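## Example record

The block below lists the input lines for one assembly entry, exactly as stored, with component labels intact.
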Amino acid sequence: MSMQKKNKPASKALLALTGSALSLPGISGKAAAADPVTETSIDYQYSNYREEDLPSSKHAGGDVERYEIDTHQLRVVRPWGDSYDVTVDLMYETMSGASPWFIMPGANGEPLQVMSGATIEDDRSDILAKVRKLYDNSAASLSLGYSDEDDYRAINVGIEGEWDLGSKQRTFTVGLGYSDDELEPTDGGTTLYPNRVTSAEKDSLSVYAGFTQVLNARTTVQSTLSFTRHDGFLSDPYKEAFVAGNRVQDNRPDGRDAIAWLTRLRHFVPSARGALHVDYRYFDDDWEIESHTLELGWHQNLPADWQLSPSVRYYSQSQAFFYAPYYNSARSDGFASSDYRLSPYGALSYRLRATKKIGTWAFHLGWERYTSEADLAIKSVRVENPGLVEFNAITFGISRHF
Amino acid sequence: MSRKLLQALGLLLVAAYMSAWAGAASAVTVGQVAPDFERMPLKGGQPVNLSDYLGQVIYLDFWASWCGPCRQSMPLMNEMYQDLSGQGFLVLAVNLDAYIDKALKFLKQYPVSYPVVRDIGGVLPEIYGLQGMPTAYLIDRKGIVRYVHHGFRRGDAPDIREAVETLLREQRQ
Amino acid sequence: MRLILRFMALTSGLFLLGSLNSGCAVKKVEAWERGELAREEMAWEPDPQEAAYRSHVYFSKEASSGGASAGGGGCGCN
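Predicted structure tokens for the full assembly:
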């Protein structure tokens, strides 16, 4: 893998910045029961993520080998004093590979993906610290995070409060998060990329609230609603779009409002010694992207402290109003993006995880296979984006509690 | 828009208030006689009665293997028991696990030298009116409940010890 | 604006759902009956670290966000 920074494709940072919406900074949308942390635990996880090569039928230039990412995570949770607990999450990842650059029409007008020229190596470090204070029937937490990459830096802060609304049958949670991101794209404003922005900023504010309800001794349900507002530079400076025969910079609105509604269920079946997980998320934003995510999981307890958990995830999204694989003429609002992550498609992924406990140690091994296609979407799609991704991810983890 | 926000907040407050209103009174409170009972020890043997120990200061501790704070409370109470048993202090633990093997596994990891009995079907917790897990009732030499301890946090041991030592100094009659 | 109104409507609906008390098929679970609920596999995230990683991957590869995210720096993810 060469280190030709000249042709550096979108770094992780930017791809996230642009195609994907921001994760709620520093907050978990989950309403945890205000149970005290009674012991210290340390968890390490290694993950290898690898995307399938771009099929030659969809390929028009650049490298076909897509992303491979190695991730190392470390998590420490420990009680602190009488009524506090502290959690620190560290993440370090290295990535290499080519990524989608722009789409051009082929001989028959079909969209073909041009990938970035050279594969590069980039790395990212992330730290998140959270302090939680427990009261008699409630808890409050504060979190701070920092993320760093070659061309990108982000700071986020979050606060969350949870209240027991009566004998721990029902809990109410509310949270607020803010993130401030700065990017300095590689080769911005150079002779090779004169229109690439040299530095940009964006920020996000999100608020969420939810209820957790114990239905009976074996069933709990939770529903959380969140609202997020993004502001600033939301385009991908490493991507371009084909407009009336010319390549132009990826250009998206400088604001984005989104809501997400997550409802989940946990149900234990004593006769089977297993637990059923059902998660459904509805997402809608003012870029006209609407999505549905449904996840079903089963956690099977086996003899000798083994556990096997298969799960399946279905995802479907509609397209952003300004998206097109390529444009025959420029839009009047000037927006342009052919990023597959703003295109209409559906995705299906299968996962399997095995866990083994030995005394105070625990080990886990997991595998996931993810495929995305226009055909999998709920509503019919006329033109599939050639850059849709397929990946395999393996995770391995070790934990110890003291 | 702000009116809608106020409406939503209003609904939320009503919901929260209505939910919080469902509270149950504790069946056994400070000043009452601790209800007597007979239960089998967890590891088998002769049945144990609470009244067997009348005259001692008893820490009646309701616990289960799945209760996180119990991993802290039981070793600490075991220490306290070993220190003060000579003066007439006893810890009587009542296990509430639905599956006995889990309780036994817990005791292998956190062994205690005081008696542990088992309650099946949630009968005793109902009689005593348990509000949370763990809950412990400190009973004086006359069999009266003098202190109810809810939950368990690291810093609780000294406070409990102080209460125990005060009760130990009291005469039986 | 349409989105904010929809958010408010959904919020009110959610709170209404939350205000259902014994009218719903909810059975009171006593403190000592919570053994099954305390199981690790009954947690919202039995493995928060793995959940954070997965969220991170999905956020980077899809257009949606939100849900059970355990924080994470602004998306340096891709």
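Confidence is low (pLDDT under 50) at residues 68-78 of chain C. The helical segments of chain C are 2-18, 48-61.
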